[in-house]
């Protein structure tokens, strides 16, 4: 009897052991969908793309050169060397497509070659089919990839500022523009408006004025709190208190000392270079936050707090402003775009579709450059 019971128990154990592979397979089969769902949630990044480490390392080296060049009061081994000259405007074009309006800018620049420099940051992925016009030829700086809703647009603007600082010590103003921007006045008018700033405060010596920067700095805007926490609830603390967080237009004209301040900054950049949460993508516009916040915290009295680039947000789509089309181009439109509530009229405007070039060229000599 004992032998019989032992045999039965052994048979049961063998049966259980032989069934284990089947049980394991069944468990795995049932659990695979659950594992797939959980892995997707756990392993997929919760943030938008950030700044690649290699890009950051390259930028730090460039920014150090720009800071040293400015501290020394002269140029360094950069794009070009020049002796001191009259103050110049550095036109910084940030683009991810062809510079369609280059022919219009050529007319704007004509005859003033000693008073300006051009620098272009073109996204390496952009297919530029048009040949550069004379003022843009050879003026493309080493560029990195850019993407909306990421700090890469801040990096690109800082790269342009640094390249212009290294290149020419005569660059006094730095105008950030896009491929969709056009001038609203002649170069002569633009130059005089920037250089003869009646609101610029005197220096301690009283003999010459500090040049101000033309950058929009806004507080109390709708959705400002969501923009502030786009990287996480407490990410910006303590370097950037919410009370000092600002928003403004992506496009500005900076005085030289503020351009140096931007490329020298490490403290605020440490926060603003952090990627936004995917869940906050609709509130992630770092390029509209970093520059106004930095200048508000460092030198609020040295800024006009308004931009010189006109834009129409009345019928924006997907975060993009109104795009002007050929039927809208007229002398009355140019005059309307110039009007401003600030000290000066607007000097530039966006956003224009590429096919606006011909109608704008027809108005260039008779309207746009007739101040």
UniProtKB/TrEMBL annotation:
One Pfam family recorded for the sequence: Branch
GO CC annotation terms, alphabetical: membrane
GO molecular function, one term: glycosyltransferase activity
Keyword tags: Glycoprotein, Glycosyltransferase, Membrane, Transferase, Transmembrane, Transmembrane helix
UniProt keyword annotation of ATP-binding present: no
The keyword Glycoprotein is annotated on this UniProt entry: yes
Cellular compartment(s): Membrane
Topology in membrane: Single-pass type II membrane protein
Segments passing through the bilayer: 20-39
UniProt-listed PANTHER family: CORE-2/I-BRANCHING BETA-1,6-N-ACETYLGLUCOSAMINYLTRANSFERASE FAMILY PROTEIN-RELATED, CORE-2_I-BRANCHING BETA-1,6-N-ACETYLGLUCOSAMINYLTRANSFERASE FAMILY PROTEIN
The protein, known as: (wild Malaysian banana) hypothetical protein
Lineage: Eukaryota, Viridiplantae, Streptophyta, Embryophyta, Tracheophyta
